[in-house]
Structure formats: structure tokens, C-alpha cells
Design brief:
5-stranded parallel beta sheet; about 400 residues; 13 helices; Rossmann fold; 8-stranded mixed beta sheet; binds ligand PMT; alpha/beta
Amino acid sequence: MLHGKHILLGITGSIAAYKAATLCRLLIKEGADVQVVMTPLAKQFITPLTMATLSKRPILVEFFDPENGAWNSHVSLGEWADLYLIAPATANTLAKMACGIADNLLLTTYLSARCPVAVAAAMDLDMYAHTATQENLDTLRRRGVEVIEPDEGELASGLSGKGRMAEPEAIVRAIDGILARSEKKKNLSGKHFLVTAGATIEAIDPVRFISNHSSGKMGYALAGELAARGAEVTLVSGRTALPTPAGVRRVDVLSAEEMYRAALEAFDHADGAVMCAAVADYTPEEVADCKIKKGDGELTIRLRRTKDIAAELGTRKGNRLLVGFALETHDEEANAQSKLEKKHFDFVVLNSLRDAGAGFRGDTNKVTFIDHAGHESLPLMPKSEVAARIVDKIESMIDKKS
Ligand code: PMT
């Protein structure tokens, strides 16, 4: 995707600025044309000479050249770029972006940019975890900025934790995906989808719970794909470590009951729903107030049925589209067929734990679409591609319904 693309690389004043040199080299190796913009403080961390040599273009820092008064136009920079990548992005720059402050060229260019914008956050772990920073990141995400999450590891302060800028190779992969998504047709503009993802957690006592292996990856890929095609997406998510996909509104829940309530509320305003969460079918009848102490004998926990969210949406769906998943270990097609009928799904995405690379946690899945007309089996592929195929099918079915 990067070949021939104009990448505006914004560098801010962080120790991670040294990685911008490798990042710039990698982008150029991929065939991109790179223009670097730096904040005045970034020059203390990496020299303009280094960046100018690598990018083969003069570096832009000030609004105008003090020698001859020539303006550096933030508007034309914003128009020139196919993507604006700010890496590293400090807590200070992120806060200014969230507030619309424009006191340097890098920031005025951000406010003028019409292209996709990505930020690779870099800071100390406490600054990153601070509510102010997290709220600023959420604000930027809501406005469509792609946040490339920092890695965990050793930090310049000597502390260890989440805050290290992602490695240049990972940033290049991320922006490749962002460019690919931005070129997709926005066929789902004006549509609203609910997506459920991840595992629910059913408390036994304040310490223990019943859950399952869902990481949320499949559901998050779907939410991201729907948003990339222009849909408004509400992602009702069980506990996961994944970042919120760009442009997606996320509602965090823990238990099946919480997911039921959040999903029903979001479905009221939705044109369709994709039920990818692995929801507990049973929950403890009673949750102990205190930690259950071990005794000598066996312990029996009585479970009661949870509400079936998908089945409930099925009864309310009217002309709306409802897509279900079926996770099976045996009699796959028969079980999936029965879910199609019972829950009033328009189609079911079947994945079986008997297929290597399919189902929980991994980055791939192998699925079969089952609808009222028949079956279609797809080969093993990355979850992002499975999501794209599911959304292709959603697009074709939504066209028929409208
Ligand atoms: O999150 P990952 O690690 O990427 O893994 C992805 C996945 C394996 C979780 C995903 O691909 C998947 O199969 N999700 C559905 C898991 C599941 O619980 O399937 P099921 O066959 O038990 O449920 C059938 C359908 O009813 C599902 O759409 C499920 O979301 C829904 N359901 C089930 C029970 C319940 N109480 N409410 C529901 O809405």
C-alpha cells in the first residue's frame, strides 16, 4: 500500500524520536515519499540533518523561514499527504491535538489534514495510564485518529511498563492497514451496527469467576471492518486487552447480564447486529460476598441459565440483519443450522475447534457461512480477512433487504 504514497511524518519531543530515523528509512524502502515535520523540542532528540538526509527533503519546524520569510504552509502539507503519522506522539502533543491547540507547525498541520491521521504514543507508563491521557486518546479515536498503542517494556525513566513507542516495523504494518482501509468504499455510510465481542465473566465470589478463552480478536476485526466501510458501530465488549478500533464506539461489560442490557439498548438504534461474543450460558445462582474459603470436602456451585442475547434480538429484529456465530466441537453443520433457525439469524458464521488455526485467541480463523440458501466454506485466513468476507456478505444482504 505504501508505494508512491505521500507520508507526512510528524516527530515530537520524546526520547523515542531516535526511532523515527528507522521509521523514515523503512517507509522510504517501501516506496513512500516522506516529508518530516518536527516540533521545536523534537530537534533536541534527533537532528533535522539526520531526518533531512534520510527523507531527502528539507525538514519543516517553524511557520516561516527567518532567513527569507518564506511560509511553510500547513494547509498545503495537509493536502499533499495521503497519511499523517505522528511518531512519537508525546502526552503533550496528544493533549493539544484533543483540545485543538495550534501552537506549532506540526499541530496546525494536524488541524488542516484531510487525510487519515495516525499517532504512535510514547511516554512514561504513569503518563500513559493517566486518565487525562486516556481521555485525550479516546477523544482522538472518536474523531477518527488511529492510535498505534505503545508497547510494554523498559522505559527511558528506568521504569518498566506500557509506554514505549511501538517498533518501527509494527508502525509501518499498522499504517499499511490504515491506508488499505481508507481506500475502501464507504458502502455502509448511514448504517448503524451492533457488534458483540470477547468473553463474558460470571463472578463466583469477589476473587473467582467463570469465563472462556475468547480474546475479542474476531469481534474487534469485524467492528473495525464495519467502521472502515462507513458504518457507525457500537461494540459491546467483554474484557479484553485489545485497543478500540478506529471510529468505533465501545461499551465495556463484564457479565452476560450486562452484555444483554447493553446489546438490547444499542440494537434499538441499529440496522443490524453481529453476535461474535462468547457469552456464558450459565452463571452462578448466587455470588458470594466474601472469598469462599476452602474446606475439606467438595464444593458445588449451582448455576442458572443466562439470557440468550442473540435469541432475544432475533425476536425483535423485524427487517433488520442479524448475523450469528457458532463455535462448535462436533456435529458442526447441524448445530449451526439449528442456531440459524432458532435465533432467527440471517446467516451464521461457523467455526470449529477441530480446525487448526480456527476459533479462540489466534490471529486466523477458518469459517463456513451458513444461510437459508446453503453453505460456503472459506479457507484458513487472518481474522481481518474473515471480517472483510463477513462484511462483504452483510453488504450484499443489506442491499437485498432495502
Ligand atoms: O474472540 P476470539 O479469541 O477471536 O475468538 C473468536 C470466537 C471463537 C469467540 C468467535 O469466532 C465465535 O465463535 N464467537 C461465538 C462464540 C459462541 O459463544 O458461540 P455459541 O455457538 O455458543 O453461540 C451462538 C451464538 O449465540 C453466538 O452468536 C453468540 O454470540 C450468541 N449467544 C450465545 C449465548 C448467549 N447467552 N447469548 C448470545 O448472544
